[in-house]
């Protein structure tokens, strides 16, 4: 079995490599726990990028 885990956006669940097509998933992640936090991680990254991107903030 692979050591990679995915978060399925269709089923809102953690999956191993043998799961839904990658187009429906976030990942891969190194652990089941990291995959379970995929939506939180994505939200945190989006917020960080928003703060760093002057164009996003209208400061161009």
Automatic annotation (TrEMBL):
Residues 42-60 have a biased composition (Basic and acidic residues). It comes from the Bacteria. Residues 37-60 are annotated as: Disordered. This is SPOR domain-containing protein. It comes from Streptosporangium canum.
